[in-house]
Design a protein that fits this description.
Belongs to the 4-hydroxybenzoyl-CoA thioesterase family. By secondary structure, this protein is α+β, with helices and mostly antiparallel strands. It is built from 4 helices and 7 strands. Strands 1, 2, 3, 4, 5, 6 and 7 form a 7-stranded antiparallel sheet that branches.
C-alpha cells in the first residue's frame, strides 16, 4: 500500500506546560500528512476547493502512545485506510525519529459541494482521483506495502 511520509520539526509553540506536544497539534499534523499524501498522488485540496468542493472531517480518532517534545522531529505516515462511495478513511502513524510510535489515528472525510454542503461522490467529480484511491484500497486488501 502507498504510505506518504512527512517530517515535522516540533516547535516550542506546539508544546504545553509539561514540555510535551499539546494534543490538539496532532490533528494539525494529520492534516499536513493527508495533504502530503494527496499531493504525492498528483491531486490537491486547493484544486478541489477552487472547483467548488470541500472535504470536511466527519470523524477522527487519535490514540496517544509516547510523548513528543520540543526539539525533536516527528514523522507523519499517512495512507488510505478505506474508500467508499461517499466516505474516505485515512490512517496515520506519528513516529519518533527512532521509529517509536507516538500516536496512531484514523480520520473520516466526505466530499461536499462548497455552496450547500451536500455530499457528492468523488468518483463522479474526480474519476482519476477515485481510481487512484481504489487502486490503493485494493493494495490494502491485498496487504501490499510501498
Amino acid at each position: 500500500m502507498y504510505i506518504s511520509e512527512k517530517e515535522i520539526e516540533i516547535r516550542y509553540a506546539e508544546t504545553d506546560q509539561m514540555g510535551v506536544v499539546y494534543h490538539a497539534n496532532y490533528i494539525i499534523w494529520l492534516e499536513i500528512g493527508r495533504t502530503k499524501l494527496i499531493e504525492d498522488l498528483g491531486f490537491t485540496y486547493a484544486g478541489m476547493e477552487k472547483d467548488g468542493y470541500l472535504s470536511p472531517v466527519t470523524d477522527i480518532s487519535i490514540q496517544y502512545k509516547a510523548a513528543l517534545r520540543y526539539g525533536q522531529k516527528a514523522v507523519v505516515r499517512t495512507w488510505v485506510e478505506e474508500h467508499g462511495r461517499l466516505r474516505t478513511k485515512y490512517g496515520y502513524e506519528i513516529l519518533h525519529e527512532d521509529g517509536t510510535i507516538a500516536a496512531t489515528a484514523i480520520s473520516e472525510h466526505v466530499v461536499v459541494k462548497k455552496d450547500n454542503f451536500r455530499p457528492v461522490s468523488i468518483k463522479k467529480i474526480y474519476p482519476e482521483w477515485h481510481a487512484k484511491y481504489e487502486e490503493i484500497k485494493k493494495q490494502v486488501a491485498d496487504g501490499v506495502r510501498n
